[in-house]
């Protein structure tokens, strides 16, 4: 069974140390990461939504992940659950982005007992590969991290583990 926590351990090990730090670019540029859809459909399908934006006073937005007992899930999926977080930082590097936020809701299979004790930061790393009709799907990984890391966004460099099976992610810097 593939668990989100296992994905987190792999993702943390793969995140390069030289990734860009989360600071708005000079001249008042704004970054945003928006989208939604479903990933890991072949095993334990997870629906997600992300809406993170840089603003003059920091980042704003919300991110969620919901696991359901959708038909086709493999035996052993942990069952229904939801995790929701308020966005605290956004980092963008080209088509790659990371959003972090403080967890405001955890239920069921995404409840506190499923994740390491005390971890309260929800992280979403994505790669925007354009319109889904082009044939190259966007990629994503979501995991929890330690307290105090909510403002430590680093844009990943293409190491997201799952393809977005249904949906789209849009990464922008203006």
Provide a descriptive summary of the structure in words.
It is a single chain. The chain is mainly beta. The chain has one domain. It contains one helix and eight strands. The chain has an eight-stranded antiparallel barrel with strand order 1-2-3-4-5-6-7-8. It is globular, with a radius of gyration of 15 Å. The chain starts with a helix and ends with a strand.
Overall morphology = globular
How much helicity do the residues have?
A: under 10%
> Mean pLDDT, as a whole number?
80
Helix- and strand-based class? Answer: mainly beta
Radius of gyration: 15 Å
Largest beta sheet: strand ordering: 1-2-3-4-5-6-7-8
Largest sheet: 8 strands, antiparallel, barrel
Count of beta strands = 8
| Total of domains | 1
Portion of residues in beta strands equals over 45%
Poorly predicted sequence stretches spanning 5 or more consecutive residues: 1-27
Total number of helices? 1
Topology as a string of helices (H) and strands (E): HEEEEEEEE
Give a short synopsis of this structure.
The chain is mainly beta.
Explain the layout of strands and helices.
Layout: H1 4-14, E1 31-39, E2 46-55, E3 58-67, E4 81-93, E5 96-108, E6 121-127, E7 139-145, E8 162-173
